[in-house]
TrEMBL record:
PROSITE patterns: HTH_GNTR
Domain HTH gntR-type: 9-77
InterPro entries: Tscrpt_reg_HTH_GntR (IPR000524), WH-like_DNA-bd_sf (IPR036388), WH_DNA-bd_sf (IPR036390)
Top-level taxon of the source organism: Bacteria
Source organism (scientific name): Lentzea guizhouensis
Protein name: GntR family transcriptional regulator
Molecular functions (GO terms): DNA binding; DNA-binding transcription factor activity
Keyword field: DNA-binding, Transcription, Transcription regulation
Length: 116
């Protein structure tokens, strides 16, 4: 993982997105252990609080679990979270079609929500 220290995306968000994508792509399977906050911060040249924030957001999203001294691991909830998002996407697509929105209009609404 490389951090763009001069980019527009904050470093904590770069870390969060990297791990979220790795979990979503199943590059990191359930139970895989993430580096300690201190070790990752040192490796990436970041403040400990920056990495801690990324891990905290991953945990709030249900993608990882912090198990005290055992560290932070990929949660089994990640798979159920993915299913919840798929279900919500299906419901959204159905609603958009019922309301007569084009596929592009519906996708633009989603893009705008991600930008917000």
């Amino acid at each position: 993982m490389k951090i763009d220290h001069h980019g527009e995306t904050p470093p904590y968000e770069q870390v969060r997105v990297h791990y979220a994508q790795s979990i979503a792509n199943r590059e990191l399977p359930v139970g895989a252990k993430l580096p300690t906050v201190r070790a990752l911060a040192k490796d990436l040249g970041l403040a400990v609080n920056t990495v801690a924030r990324a891990y905290r957001e991953l945990e709030e999203a249900g993608l990882v679990e912090t198990r005290g001294r055992a560290g932070t691991v990929v949660s089994a909830n990640g798979d159920s979270n993915r299913e919840r998002v798929r279900s919500a996407a299906h419901a959204y697509a159905s609603m958009a079609a019922e309301l007569g929105l084009s596929r592009e209009e519906a996708l633009e609404i989603v893009r705008a929500a991600f930008r917000a």
